[in-house]
Design goal:
The protein has a single domain, classed as 6 Propeller (Neuraminidase). The N and C termini lie far apart (37 Å). A hairpin with a 5-residue loop joins strand 6 and strand 7. It is mainly β. Helices cover 0% and strands 51% of the residues.
Length: 289
Amino acid sequence: MNGSILSPAQSVGNYRAMLGETPVWCCATQSLIWVDIVQQRLLRLWPERGDDIEIHPLPFICSAALLTDQPDQLLLVTSAGVKLYDARRRSFSTLCPWIEDAQTRPNEAAVAPDGSLWFSTMDINAQQVKGSWYRFESGDKEPVQMLGGQHVPNTLLWFGGYAWFGDTFAHRFYRSPAEAMSPETLMSWPSGEFFADGSALDASGLMFNARWGAGCLARYQLTDAAPEFIDTLSLPVQQPSSCAFGGPDLSDLYVTSARDGLLTPTPQDGALLRLHTSFNGQRASLFQL
């Protein structure tokens, strides 16, 4: 590994999420964007403004706020469909409606290298295996289903010509060709006994995976073969949910977490965490409007 952790994880700001998820770093504005799914909020951290956190209330469940090729136009994956959000005016427009029933919600989402949106769905109570993966690009009337039969689909990354993803409750990681998912092209590997949630990737293919309920990040090296487990990094939260590289040189690792379901949460549970590292992350892809 060409890098190391330079400081222990520290909480950023006073906001505590019920279910913090899907962090993404905006290089154009030098800000971090993530969501609190349960409390229906879009959150934005401004490190250069003294770690100020903006709170944008939302009228629907939103699992991800992603970047587009237009400044201040964010792509929202919501229970009301795929939306475009003007962050300055705080106004919404609909790109496509929600295509499943009211018993499912969106979960993981990311913009692919080709500028299309990939997102997953899951049973709203995480009980039934009824989730799917979809692809959507500007101009489509509705998303195209790529893969069904998912329980809690998480982690979505592109590396080495492949899309990498996981199913938390199935305890599996998967790999498919980067241009599309299909049952015929999947390869899969066990992700261990813990619950593998969202992940971040550095430039060399080192994957940092949030382990829900285990209070740590697990590190894997992605290769043409199975993901190679390296080690774990302890965190001061019980339910880390996802992570992303940010900062001026993409070397700060931000980790979201959740208080949802905890009978005795600690003061840090639900916090946004930051670790200073010598790793180098990758720029987030932009949705092409």
